[in-house]
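#struct-help
A.M.: can someone run this one for me? Single chain, 237 residues.
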Amino acid sequence: MGRKWNNIKEKKAAKDKNTSRIYAKFGRELYVAAKQGDPDPELNQALKVVVERAKTYNVPKTIIDRAIEKAKGGAEENYDELRYEGFGPNGSMVIVDALTNNVNRTAAEVRSAFNKNGGNMGVNGSVSYMFDATAVFGLEGKTADEVLEILMEADVDARDILEEDEAVIVYAEPDQFHAVQEALKNAGITDFTVAELTMLAQNDIELPEDSAAQFEKLVDALEDLEDVQQVYHNVEL
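D.P.: on it. Structure tokens below:
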């Protein structure tokens, strides 16, 4: 799992460098989650997940509140949730999640990003079967044994609990996101370096230097697209 954690850290570090883009993407995701359910995070589990994720990226409360208030106000912006799958250099695998108000535009832009950077789009299911939906938490100040004890006492299951780079990483089933979070919060752990619902590759791969550089350009091109919310892949960067 260590290499997977490194990928998550690298992805988060890259996002942290571009705050305006991150705020815009979270604003859209918060709006959609609030619009599709109750605008109160305590009554809308999907919204609560996005709020908690936003906090780990230091999205200001004003932006979170503004997006939720926009949904409460009856704004009629409609977004489709889309997933694209494809291949990068040397058979690398990529999953792209998007929120869009123009499906044709987004499909064309995603396809163009693949084609211009050594990749190609695949059909639905061509890549995702090699990934597992996973809840991931990163925290500091505890040992793996202490976290395991906290979760066991709360009768909460985790796939794996590891210690790496002075942090404890908890991997769990997606439907355990709130249970894990609440158990940790009830034990006094309120700050998370990562609190994500993500797609983890079952097997990471390493690319030759030239292919790795091209692959990074592909990921950057995809993440730069306004409609793209998340990019997952199986490459060790």
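A.M.: thanks! The mean pLDDT is 90.
D.P.: also worth noting: Helices lie at 2-16, 19-36, 45-56, 61-72, 103-116, 144-153, 177-186, 209-223.
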